[in-house]
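User: Design a sequence. Structure:
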């Protein structure tokens, strides 16, 4: 056994690893976290630093330790960052960044030599052989991935089948299939958008067009017309299927899944359209009630059908009002409890703020309904900001957006009584907590917008629950029905509210997913 004091026992580049970990949280393209969401994923920068410092021996004196830490993580320097505020003004602030090192995402090419140096050093520390690294709780795979990049023999284990599959896709398939090309699946040849992107990336042209470009001495730049012709070309010559690497196969099959999911879920996410210009302007126009958007065969919204009455020239100007589709981003829900005094349905809401970012301030309003059996919701847009100092503003905002819940329980909006937390738990244990659709978040022309749910959307939830039951019935070996064991820290808070079986919590999550994803 190679037992020697490790660097991590004496020194660790904590500051640099933290800075590069924070930087990595904002990386969208190419990072393993974009493959699939997994809870408590560790940043790659932190894993890499921890692995190197664990695998390498301690060099023995403070100066050498400092040098090694700097080689791993670079130095911390100050930089001026300029940020544009919502009012258009620019603010400058000092920011700490790392320079050098091998932890920063995106510097892999420039740091390739240093990374190779670390690989050699690690091997040297283990008698010239690649050390074995075991992560028995591997989750999203950050630690084994970094171990592999450092040249170790990594073994990853996770009890959860989803994590197991993420690990396969992160650690195994890319290595096995790297550099290999296989024919694309036939169905994708008819996907114009995919084929255009594929041809553009591979600089593929129809022979005739290609010759035309060559004659004119132009570099082969794909053009829109060429590409759609090309996709038809491939569709016609199904025997002539182009070969592609793993990334393009993942894209193709991703579209296959998306297409099926869209068709299946379209009934649960009806798209509505508002009549408005794409580009806001001061010209007055007649408002119209929102309309349900018809669907095309592939279940995407058919906006051409809705805007058929307008000419092409009219639609070309973005300041002209027309029907604009606003796809649903999320259905927002509240749990409810029945008031022990007046029997009204109380929505359990901690806050009624729907959005409070920059100059978008949207509030869910709530009034008792006519017979005081529950509440009627509304949406207040452009809620003004109160004056005063920061503390006064904070207190005012809190009061303005107060929901029904506080630490002591839920106050009934229809009578002066209160359901204590104990009352709510007892109702939950008796299976009497329910849910209420509060609002819908949609994708508008200028970002997220909020509206009240339509009756059709409220009805959808009943259908979704039925589908949920069907889905659960089709699970191989059935849904686990054992009781959730409460842990010492009582992190399993759901048990106190009557969600005491794994299957019940799973149902809740899944219904919520199908209702609100
Ligand atoms: C905090 S996550 C690990 C996150 C991981 N380090 C990453 O960066 O993505 C903990 C993992 O331990 C797994 N786990 C919990 N109990 C386990 C057990 N008994 N055997 C194997 N894996 C287990 C969980 O499924 C979860 O994926």
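Assistant: Done.
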């Amino acid at each position: 056994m190679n037992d020697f004091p490790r660097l991590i026992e004496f020194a660790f580049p904590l500051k640099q690893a933290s800075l590069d970990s924070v930087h990595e949280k904002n990386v969208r393209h190419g990072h393993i976290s974009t493959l699939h969401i997994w809870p408590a994923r560790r940043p790659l920068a932190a894993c890499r630093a921890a692995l190197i410092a664990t695998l390498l021996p301690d060099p023995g004196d403070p100066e050498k330790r400092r040098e090694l830490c700097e080689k791993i993580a670079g130095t911390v320097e100050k930089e001026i960052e300029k940020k544009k505020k919502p009012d258009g003004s620019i603010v400058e602030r000092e920011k700490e960044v790392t320079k050098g090192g091998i932890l920063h995402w995106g510097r892999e090419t420039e740091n390739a030599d240093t990374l190779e140096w670390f690989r050699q050093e690690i091997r040297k520390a283990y008698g010239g052989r690649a050390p074995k690294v075991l992560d028995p709780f591997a989750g999203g795979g950050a630690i084994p991935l970094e171990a592999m990049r450092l040249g170790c023999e990594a073994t990853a284990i996770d009890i959860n089948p989803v994590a197991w599959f993420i690990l396969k896709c992160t650690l195994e398939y890319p290595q096995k299939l790297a550099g290999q090309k296989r024919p694309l699946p036939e169905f994708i040849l008819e996907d114009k958008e995919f084929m255009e992107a594929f041809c553009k990336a591979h600089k593929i042209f129809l022979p005739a067009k290609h010759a035309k470009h060559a004659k004119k001495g132009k570099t082969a730049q794909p053009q829109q017309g060429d590409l759609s012709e090309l996709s038809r070309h491939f569709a016609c010559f199904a025997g002539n299927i182009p070969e592609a690497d793993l990334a393009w196969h993942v894209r193709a099959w991703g579209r296959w899944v998306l297409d099926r999911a869209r068709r299946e879920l379209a009934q649960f996410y009806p798209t509505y359209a508002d009549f408005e210009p794409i580009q806001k302007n001061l010209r007055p126009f007649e408002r119209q009630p929102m309309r349900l958007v018809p669907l095309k065969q592939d279940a995407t919204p058919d906006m051409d059908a809705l805007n058929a009455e307008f000419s092409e020239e009219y639609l070309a100007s973005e300041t002209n009002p027309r029907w604009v589709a606003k796809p649903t981003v999320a259905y927002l829900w509240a749990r409810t409890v029945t008031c022990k005094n007046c029997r009204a349905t109380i929505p359990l809401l901690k806050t009624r703020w729907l959005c409070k970012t920059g100059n978008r301030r949207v509030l869910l309003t709530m009034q008792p309904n006519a017979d005081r059996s529950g509440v009627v919701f509304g949406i207040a847009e452009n809620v003004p900001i109160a004056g005063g100092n920061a503390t006064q503003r904070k207190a005012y905002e809190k009061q303005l957006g107060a929901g029904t819940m506080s630490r002591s329980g839920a106050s009934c909006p229809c009578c002066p009584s209160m359901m204590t937390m104990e009352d709510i738990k007892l109702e939950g244990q008796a299976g009497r907590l329910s849910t209420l659709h509060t609002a819908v978040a949609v994708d508008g022309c200028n970002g997220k917008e909020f509206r009240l749910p339509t009756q059709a959307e409220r009805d959808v939830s009943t259908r979704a629950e039925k589908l949920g039951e069907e889905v659960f019935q089709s699970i191989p070996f059935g849904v686990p029905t054992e009781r959730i064991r409460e842990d010492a820290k009582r992190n399993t808070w759901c048990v106190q509210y009557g969600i005491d079986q794994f299957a019940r919590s799973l149902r809740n999550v899944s219904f919520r997913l199908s209702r609100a994803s």
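DSSP finds 16 helices and 19 strands in the chain. The longest helix spans residues 246-265.
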